[in-house]
Write a structure and sequence with these properties.
By secondary structure, this protein is mainly alpha-helical. Helix content is 72%, strand content 7%. A 3-stranded antiparallel β-sheet has the order 1-3-2. A hairpin with a 4-residue loop joins strand 2 (70-72) and strand 3 (77-80). The longest helix has 42 residues, at 88-129.
Length: 130
C-alpha cells in the first residue's frame, strides 16, 4: 500500500468512503490509473472480502462518474480532473448541453403542470353537470 495511506489509521480508512480513498490513491500515484487497478487498491486499503468487492464494484464505478473530482481519459483510465487544464471548448460545450438539459426539464415540468390543470378542469366540469 502507498505512502499516502500510511498517514491514516485503519479506523480512519474504514470510515472513509471508497471515493475519498480513490482520491488519495490517485493523488499519491500522481498519474492516471486503470479503473480496476484503482478499485483493487481501494479494496485492499479497506480490506474488502471477495464478496464485498463483487458487491461494491458497480457502485464505485458510479461514484467515480458522479464525483466531480475525477475524469475518465477513455478506455477506463481515470485521473484527477485538476491535473488536466480544462479545455475551454469542452467546458463550453458541456455548459451548453447542461443548459439544454435544464431547458428541456423545465418544458417537461410545465407540460406536467398543464396536464394537472386539465384534470382539474374536468373535475369542475363534472360537478356542474349534476
Amino acid at each position: 500500500m502507498g505512502m499516502a495511506l500510511q498517514k491514516y489509521t485503519n479506523e480512519q480508512i474504514t470510515k472513509m468512503s471508497m471515493i475519498e480513498l480513490a482520491n488519495i490513491i490517485l493523488a499519491e500515484q500522481k498519474k492516471e490509473m486503470n479503473f480496476i487497478d484503482l478499485f483493487q487498491k481501494v479494496a485492499e486499503a479497506k480490506d474488502f472480502t471477495k464478496k464485498q468487492k463483487e458487491d461494491l464494484l458497480a457502485r464505485f464505478y458510479t461514484d467515480l462518474n458522479v464525483d466531480g473530482r475525477f475524469t475518465t481519459l477513455g478506455s477506463n483510465v481515470w485521473g484527477l480532473k485538476r491535473w488536466y487544464p480544462a479545455d475551454q471548448t469542452t467546458e463550453k460545450s458541456l455548459a451548453e448541453s447542461r443548459k439544454r438539459d435544464l431547458e428541456e426539464e423545465q418544458e417537461e415540468e410545465e407540460e406536467e403542470a398543464e396536464k394537472e390543470y386539465q384534470d382539474y378542469d374536468d373535475l369542475q366540469y363534472n360537478e356542474d353537470d349534476e
